[in-house]
Amino acid sequence: MLVTDKRCWAEINLSQIEKNYEIYKNHLPSGTKVMAVVKADAYGHGDTEIAGLLQNHGVTDFAVATLEEAIKLRLSGINGQIFVLGYTPILQAQNLIEYDITQAVVDETHAKKLSKVDKNIKVVFALDTGMNRIGLDADDPEFCEKIIREYVPKLSVQGVFTHLCVADTSTPQAIDFTNKQIKKFETIVKRISDLKLPYNHCLNSAGGLWNKSGKSVFARLGIILYGLKPNYLNELPQGIKPALSWYSVVSMVKSVHPGETIGYGRTFTAEREMQVATVCVGYADGYNRLLSNEYYVLINGKKAPILGRICMDQLMVDVTEIPDVKMGTKVTLIGQDGKEIITADDMANKIGTIGYEIVCNISGRVERKYIWAETN
User: What is the mean pLDDT of each run of 10 residues along the chain (376 residues)?
Assistant: First the structure.
C-alpha cells in the first residue's frame, strides 16, 4: 500500500519551532531581545512561514542575508525591522528605502556610496572584531568612532554589530578570543553612547546562550531556533530539538547476487545475496553525495546502509534484513523512525561538515509540509 503520493518531502514541525524559541528566549540575559535569523529560506525551513509564526509570538526583528530575502519577507506581511546582514549592491540600494529595510554597512566605502543614494537609508555599521569578514577595524576604535560619527548626519544610523566566530567553542583559547571580541565591541559602543543608537548587537545563537554583553540589544537566534547545534560538541538546553524531518519513498526492490556491483563507478560489490531498495532522493534534492557508501537511511524502524554512489535523483540501500519493504514504503532521511533517529548534525559530522549545510542544501524541489505536533 502506498503511504504517500510524494517522492520526497520535508516536514517542519511549527510546534517545535515555537518551543525552541521560547526555551532560548528564557535563557537570555534580562533585557536581551531575540532577532530571528531567517536567511537562506530560514535555513531551509521556509522563511515566510517561520517569520510569520514568530511575528505572531511577538518577535519584531528579523535578519536575512540579502535584499531579495528582505523584500520577500516584507511582501509576505512581516513588519518591524528586517536587517540585511550582508552586502547590498548600490544599484539596488533605493529598494532599502522603498521597503523599509535596514542595511549592514560593510566598510567606509560602502557607507559613502549608500549616503549618495539617500540619507534616510537605515544602516547598522559592521565592526570587525576578529572574524576578518566584513566591518570597520575594531582594533582601531578611534577610527571606528570617527567614521560612525561622520555618517550619522548622512545616513539613518541605527547602531553597530559584530559577529562572534568561536562563541560555540569551549576551549580556553576560544573563550578568551570571544571575550576579546565582546570587549572590542563594547568599547566602541561606549565611545558612541551619546548618539543613543537603538540597535547595537554582538550575540549570535551560541553567544546568547554562553556569553553576555550588557551592550547587546539582541541575540541573533539562528541555527538553534531550528533545533540544531552551532557546534557538534555543544549541548543545547533541554527541550530544544530539530524541527525538520526529511522523507522519501522506495521505488523498487530487487535481488542482487554475489559479485554484482551497484551504482556509478561500481564502488560497491555484493559479497552475498542481497535485497536492494532504490530510494527517490539524490544530490539534486540536497542529499550529500559524500554520504555514498558511508551512511544509512531508516526504513521500518531499522538502518538501511547506502550502497554505491548517490545519484542525482536516486540512491540504493541494503534492505536484506528489513522485512516488508516494497514500492511506496516510507524512508526517513532525517528524523525518527521507531527507536532510531538521524539528525542533520549527525549526518554532517559523518562527512566533516555542519548541520547548517545539510538543511540549507535541501533543494527547492523537495516540498515542505508544515505540521503541528507536540514533542517530548
Answer: 77 98 95 97 98 97 98 98 97 98 98 98 98 98 98 98 98 98 98 98 97 96 98 97 98 98 98 98 98 98 98 98 97 98 98 98 98 86
Helix axes 108-117, 141-151, angle to 10 degrees: 0
Position 179 scores a pLDDT of 98
For the residues of 73-118, what is the DSSP string, one character each?
A: HHHTT--SEEEE-S---GGGTHHHHHTT-EEEE-SHHHHHHHHHH-
Task: Please tell me the predicted confidence (pLDDT) of residue 3.
Answer: 53
Pairing of strands 156-161, 122-128: parallel
> How many other C-beta atoms lie within 10 A of the C-beta of residue 169?
17
Q: Are 122 and 105 in contact (CB under 8 A)?
A: no
Coil vs helix vs strand at 289: helix
Does residue 264 have an active-site annotation?
yes
Q: Is 21 a catalytic residue?
A: no
Q: How far apart are CA 40 and CA 361, in angstroms?
A: 9
- pTM attached to this predicted model: 0.96
Which of 19, 21, 24, 39 does the annotation list as catalytic? 39
- Sign of the C-alpha dihedral, residues 354, 357, 360, 364? negative
CA distances to 69, 95, 158, 171, 334 from 120, in Å: 21, 12, 11, 43, 45
Q: What is the pLDDT of residue 2?
A: 45
**In sequence order, which residues have a C-beta less than 8 Å from that of residue 90 and are 6 or more positions away?**
113, 114, 117
What pLDDT was estimated at residue 342?
A: 98
- pLDDT at residue 5, rounded to an integer: 84
d(CA 315, CA 311): 6
Residues 6+ apart with CB under 8 A from 212: 29
**Pick the catalytic residue: 116, 183, 190, 264?**
264
> Per-residue DSSP letters for 294-310?
T-EEEETTEEEEEES--
